[in-house]
Design brief:
Shape: globular
Strand content: 25-35%
Subunit structure: Homodimer.
Radius of gyration: 25 Å
Main location: secreted
Cofactor: Zn(2+); Fe cation
Number of strands: 32
Keywords: Glycoprotein, Hydrolase, Secreted, Signal, Zinc
Mean pLDDT: 90
InterPro entries: Calcineurin-like_PHP, Fn3_PAP, Metallo-depent_PP-like, MPP_PAP, PAPs_C, PAPs_N, Purple_acid_Pase-like_N
Helix content: 10-25%
């Protein structure tokens, strides 16, 4: 039996880009880069074609991201012409890995990190052969070049390559990600840099705001192409993810503000520093104070410059991110419950995502869960045999865990591994529920990516199950026995809330203000973080109280041990569109309801 907010059960192999603590349905589309047939690319350089990028050096004043302006000319312009951003700048066949190279070089063996059509901001490009384009770049530890292609995405021909562009310090420490530690008074800080252990010593310099600072060392990990399970992650989608550093800040005072900087001491004695950040330490378990939690899934990334979005896939991501940033002073911890990036094997996109959410992850704990787009790959041990991870097979992010945050106990499952009765994960889930001290943590929350409870999604409706196959058959008795207040899911890209329910039956007719003893668990689908929306079944699901075919996120606010507020907000405007409250004392948690008390006797 475990205690506190420690890791429990299995922590599946590594979480490199997100140390998410403590250590089927359809595939929902492909990464936009998958639409480029890079293996069909031909070199067809034209003497009269050119492309120029400026400025040549980015981030000289510490800026990241930075805008680059391209000017280009083609003697044979077409509306199918497009520009790819390549990093590293040298993307010829000479750099190909033996597994990534294509027969009949000089084919290309690496996908661009982003792309845009040549006429995107130059509508007369086809008539004049001249155009310009502005693209937003983040520091990704290498230089960049820009390539003009004709032939569209399916038969690309390389006609011109630009000068190289680089950041002033491409190795700089970037994109800090906070997460709850193994205990309530520990915070992990994970970041990315270009400094390996052979060139620098990584550390965090931190302390209470305005007080003396200390330094804590950081560990360093990385991965290589052979860690991936298949294409495109192991072939055209591969890109060196840099070095991932993690430090553990311990013995924090509850609710205290700390400042920190990422540091690297080079072996020549030089120090490299990040900007200064700050966070507020977690409350003591059971502490009676206002605690605010945001939960959503399936966000992914989008590009402010309009690139990489020709398939209209994740347009809600930027709105969701913006709403969280704008309201960050009213958020204490975030749970992103699977389908994090939708990189789908294009490893460069993990950097793009960590840059997108860095204003959040650098200030509050950002906890992640495993989804199908992080884990699933045939023959890799995942419960589902799909190729949804694009060959990543959990290398970039994979975990299950429990954590306490003040008056909350969170039990986070991994739906890409078997959860049914008799499995290791089933035992972990039950221990997580059973070990919660409901006097300290009255609010017991279950989190999983796939819908193990209830959903009116069209594909679940077509199956007649209204759940992931075999989803709730084993778990519903645990939810009822241990009086789980709310279960959250992603995977289905919309919002839906059920009544308090058990075995398909609503156990409470109330819809917005729940009082007194527990009746049944409320199930919430919060998969509208940003990826393409999913339709509802036309069938009448009587247990469903609220549905919304839109992008949004959910928020829990615990005012004290007896009062909890749930809110659903749209990403478009941040306003509340659905809500309910729970008012429940400790004696109400002890009270019996259907199937959650042992038999009693009148014998004295």
């Amino acid at each position: 039996m475990f205690q506190g907010s420690g890791l429990e059960g299995m922590i599946l192999p590594v979480i490199l880009l997100f140390l998410a603590t403590l250590q089927e349905a359809s595939s929902h589309g492909d990464n936009p880069l998958a639409g480029i047939a890079i293996h069909e690319a031909r070199f067809a350089l034209e003497e009269s074609a050119f492309i120029k990028a400026s400025p040549g050096v980015l981030g000289a004043q510490g800026g990241n991201p930075e805008w680059v302006t391209l000017s280009f000319t083609s003697a044979n312009p077409s509306n199918d012409d497009w520009i790819g951003v390549f990093s590293p700048a040298d993307f010829s066949a000479a750099i190909c890995d033996s597994e990534g190279s294509m027969a009949g070089a000089p084919f290309l063996c690496t996908a661009p990190i982003k792309f845009q059509y040549a006429n995107y901001s130059s509508p007369r490009y086809k008539a004049t052969g001249k155009g310009s384009l502005r693209l937003l770049l983040i520091n990704q530890r290498s230089d960049f070049s820009f390539a003009l292609f004709s032939g569209g995405l399916s038969k690309p021909k390389l006609v011109a390559v630009s000068n190289k562009v680089t950041f002033a310090n491409p190795n700089a420490p970037l994109y800090p990600r906070l997460a709850q530690g193994k205990t309530w008074n520990e915070m992990t800080v994970t970041w990315t840099s270009g400094y390996g252990i052979s060139s620098a010593e990584p550390f965090i310099e931190w302390g209470q705001k305005g007080d003396v600072r200390v330094r804590s060392p950081a560990g360093t990990l990385t991965i290589d192409r052979s860690s991936m399970c298949g294409p495109p992650a192991r072939t055209v989608g591969w890109r060196d993810p840099g070095f991932i550093h993690t430090s553990f800040l311990k013995e924090l005072w509850p609710n205290t503000v700390y400042t920190y900087k990422l540091g690297h001491k080079l072996f020549n004695g030089t120090y490299i520093w990040s900007p200064e950040y700050q966070f507020k330490a977690s409350p003591y378990p059971g502490q009676d104070s206002v605690q605010r939690v945001v939960i959503f899934g399936d966000m992914g990334k989008d590009e402010p410059d309009g690139s990489n979005v020709y398939n209209n896939y994740q347009h809600g991501a930027l709105n969701t991110t913006k709403q969280l940033i704008d309201d960050l002073k009213n958020i204490d911890i975030v749970f992103h419950i699977g389908d994090i990036v939708y990189a789908n094997g294009y490893i460069s996109q993990w950097d793009q995502f960590t840059a997108q959410v860095a204003p959040i992850t650098s200030k509050v704990p950002y906890m992640v869960a495993s989804g199908n787009h992080e884990r699933d790959w045939p023959g890799s041990g995942s419960f589902y045999g799909t190729k949804d991870s694009g060959g990543e097979c959990g290398v970039m992010a994979e975990t299950m865990y429990s954590t306490d945050y003040g008056m909350f106990r969170f039990c986070v499952a991994d739906t890409e591994h078997d959860w049914r009765e008799g499995t290791e994960q089933y035992e972990f889930i039950e221990r997580c529920f059973a070990s919660a001290d409901r006097r300290k943590q009255p609010w017991l929350i279950f989190i999983a990516h796939r819908v193990l409870g209830y959903s009116s999604a069209s594909w679940y409706g077509a199956q007649g199950s209204f759940e992931e196959p075999m989803g709730r058959e084993s778990l519903q008795k645990l939810w009822q026995k241990y009086k789980v207040d709310i279960a959250f899911y992603g995977h289905v890209h919309n919002y839906e809330r059920t009544c308090p329910i058990y075995q398909n039956i609503c156990l409470d007719k109330e819809k917005h203000n729940y009082k007194g003893p527990f009746n049944g668990t409320i199930h919430v689908v919060a998969g509208g973080g940003g990826s393409g929306l999913a339709d509802f079944t036309p069938l009448n699901t009587t247990w469903s109280l609220f549905k919304d075919h839109d992008y949004g996120f959910t928020k829990l606010t615990a005012f004290d041990h007896s009062n909890l507020l749930f809110e659903y907000k749209k990403s478009s405007d941040g306003k509340v569109y659905d809500s309910f409250t729970i008012n429940r004392d400790y004696r109400d948690i002890l009270a019996c309801s259907v199937d959650n008390c042992s038999p009693t006797t009148l014998a004295s």
